[in-house]
């Protein structure tokens, strides 16, 4: 009995995951409903289906990056923001990088706003673990890895 319940639970949990992995097939022939005006009875189920698909797409978020992926990005991008090429970035350079990262996820980010400036200051203080007023590659990788987990 318990095995049956566990098997049924596993199937219920895995069905949505398997459905996401399957490619969507497109019909070979155009649907007749496209050429004829839809009646209210036939339009209602499709609008519910569209809303359900939109909701599931909107709530699906990408998986967080692994520490190895974060280290690769830091290694690749660090020279871009290390303007004086001393191997460490200042608070201003760090701020430019953090605003660029935040703008990628939230295009409405205003780099000059007090909220963003406060956020950058707090992030820099957290990232600068040795209190040297500069952030090294290792410190930045550790800081960004903490945010991803």
From TrEMBL:
Query: Protein name, please?
Result: EF-hand domain-containing protein
Ranges of residues in domain EF-hand: 69-104
Q: Which UniProt keywords apply?
A: Signal
Question: Which parts of this chain are annotated as the region Disordered?
Answer: 16-70
Compositionally biased, Low complexity: which spans? 46-69
Q: Which SMART domains match?
A: EFh (SM00054)
Q: Name one GO molecular function term.
A: calcium ion binding
N-terminal signal peptide: 1-19
Q: Which domain of life is it from?
A: Bacteria
Gene source species = Sphingomonas baiyangensis
């Amino acid at each position: 009995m318990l095995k049956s319940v566990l098997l049924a639970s596993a199937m219920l949990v895995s069905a949505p995951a398997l459905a996401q992995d399957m490619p969507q097939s497109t019909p070979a022939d155009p649907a007749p409903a496209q050429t004829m005006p839809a009646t209210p009875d036939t339009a209602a189920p499709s609008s519910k289906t569209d809303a359900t698909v939109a909701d599931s797409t909107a709530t699906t978020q990408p998986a967080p990056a692994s520490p190895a992926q974060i280290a690769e990005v830091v290694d690749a991008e660090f020279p871009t923001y290390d303007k004086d090429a001393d191997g460490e970035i200042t608070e201003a350079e760090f701020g430019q990088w953090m605003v660029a990262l935040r703008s990628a996820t939230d295009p409405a980010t205003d780099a000059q706003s007090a909220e963003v400036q406060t956020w950058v200051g707090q992030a820099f203080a957290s990232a600068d673990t040795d209190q040297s007023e500069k952030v090294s590659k290792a410190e930045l990788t550790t800081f960004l890895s903490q945010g991803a987990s």
